[in-house]
């Protein structure tokens, strides 16, 4: 039994106390064998899970030495490097190793700690998510380190972010095109008249110039760092800004009544005239 033969049973004819001892011994070895088989089944089950998951798993001793790795880690990092590695120092740069030591200490206190690092592999940058879990709060217990490649996820997030930026830029550029198009139509109608109204043409020309400048400003801001224009607040008459914004729709809202409810005598407010005008035009 001491050598691991838990299947051995004592077959001795005995009486009284010795028979009780023999029976107890056989029951003990049978229980040990059942427990050992259960532990072996659980070990195989755990190993099957570790070998089937796509994330890399490293089992670490309390001193940080590598005890076991799963198959996915060989596909994530260099296989020969993984096979030779004895400690995390053999797999990571000094900076990343220092970060991992900090994570291990934190996991000892909190149970689990995680971070993100950039791992250079054959000239290619991998974005790795590292999660360290302490097996116990005791100082002499080990750790489990899980590594997941989040590069595809980050690329998808960046693509989604650029899609959103493009959508918003298109929306912002389309806003000035509305009054430009309306003014162009008004000018075309005036040119068809025997005597064009110079006041309307001058107003439309001013609006077109203003909106073109708005587009130019937007493009300049975007080219600096793909950012939207920051506000340039100045003291302004809010009623005047609203009226100017609504003027681009003059003669274009057939069958639609715009009700203005503007309070006279308002104090000037600190607003970005261009962006506020864009807001009113967009709402209408």
Question: Could you characterize the architecture of this molecule?
Answer:
- With about 280 residues, this protein is α+β, with helices and mostly antiparallel strands.
- It has 8 helices and 7 strands.
- About 55% of the residues lie in helices and about 15% in strands.
- The longest helix is centred in the middle third of the chain and has 42 residues, at about 150-190.
- The chain starts with 15 loop residues before the first helix and ends with a helix.
Question: In a few lines, what is going on in this structure?
Answer:
With 284 residues, the protein is of the alpha+beta class. It has helices at 16-52, 71-76, 79-84, 94-110, 151-192, 198-225, 238-247, 273-283; strands at residues 56-60, 66-69, 112-121, 124-134, 143-149, 234-236, 269-271.
């Amino acid at each position: 039994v001491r050598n691991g033969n838990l299947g051995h049973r004592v077959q001795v004819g005995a009486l009284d106390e010795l028979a009780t001892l023999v029976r107890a011994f056989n029951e003990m070895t049978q229980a040990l064998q059942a427990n050992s088989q259960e532990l072996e089944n659980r070990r195989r089950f755990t190993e099957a899970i570790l070998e089937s998951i796509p994330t890399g798993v490293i089992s670490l001793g309390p001193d940080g030495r590598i005890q076991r790795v799963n198959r996915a880690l060989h596909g994530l990092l260099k296989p020969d490097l993984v096979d030779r590695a004895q400690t995390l120092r053999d797999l990571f740069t000094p900076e990343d190793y220092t970060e991992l030591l900090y994570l291990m200490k934190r996991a000892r206190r909190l149970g689990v700690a995680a971070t993100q690092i950039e791992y250079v592999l054959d000239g290619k940058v991998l974005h790795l998510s590292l999660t360290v879990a302490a097996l116990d709060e005791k100082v002499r217990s080990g750790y489990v380190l899980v590594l997941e490649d989040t590069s595809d996820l980050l690329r998808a997030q960046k693509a989604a972010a650029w899609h959103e930026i493009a959508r918003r830029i298109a929306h912002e550029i389309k806003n000035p095109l509305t009054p430009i198009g309306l003014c162009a139509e008004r000018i075309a109608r005036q040119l068809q008249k025997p005597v064009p109204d110079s006041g309307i043409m001058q107003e439309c020309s001013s609006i077109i110039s203003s909106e073109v400048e708005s587009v130019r400003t937007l493009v300049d801001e975007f080219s600096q760092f793909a950012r939207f224009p920051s506000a340039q607040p100045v003291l302004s008459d809010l009623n005047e800004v609203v009226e100017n914004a609504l003027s681009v729709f003059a003669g274009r809202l057939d069958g639609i009544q715009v009700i203005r409810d503007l309070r006279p005598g308002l104090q000037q407010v600190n607003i970005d005239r261009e962006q506020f005008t864009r807001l009113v035009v967009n709402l209408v």
